[in-house]
Specification:
mainly beta; 10-stranded antiparallel β-barrel; 1 helix; globular
């Protein structure tokens, strides 16, 4: 765990300066569960579970419409030193990419890393208990939207 927190500190350092919100990890608890979105070419799933009061773990998968796995990423939400970070570990990056939670209000959570190539911004908005909208963007209007539905079970 100490090694993980050291790694998180190293990865988060470039984005820590931009954290403005005093948001708590507990405000993200409505994300816990299984979510699924379908696009014209794929099915995207995201799942979150609470590990501790300071950490949630997640997994994101993208399958083609025939069911074959196209992409996968390990996700983590971590609260440390009064700040919350979204960490995404994808296979083509040697280290996780950290996004700082910069705002959280009205069931909308904005994560940002201005130093990352793409995306620079992740906007999670709970539209209802069972509906989640995620905008993945460069922060300047280019990107895509996923409309997730909570999966029962």
């Amino acid at each position: 765990m100490k090694l993980f927190l050291s790694l998180v500190s190293l990865v988060c350092y470039p984005v820590c300066y931009s954290v403005q919100a005093q948001c708590e990890l507990s405000s993200l608890e409505p994300l816990i569960g299984q979510w699924q979105a379908q696009t014209k070419k794929s099915v995207v799933s995201e799942s979150w579970h609470k590990v501790s009061d300071q950490s949630f773990e997640g997994l994101g998968n993208t399958h083609d419409l025939a069911g074959a796995l196209k992409d996968s990423e390990e996700l983590r939400l971590v609260q440390m030193q009064g700040k919350v970070f979204y960490l995404a570990k994808v296979k083509h990056n040697p280290l996780p990419v950290a996004f700082a939670l910069i705002s959280c209000q009205n069931n909308r959570f904005r994560f940002e890393n201005k130093n990352h190539d793409f995306p620079k911004q992740l906007d999670y908005q709970l539209l209802s208990v069972d509906s989640l909208q995620v905008d993945v963007s460069d922060g300047a209007g280019e990107g895509f939207r996923l409309n997730f539905n909570r999966q029962k079970g």
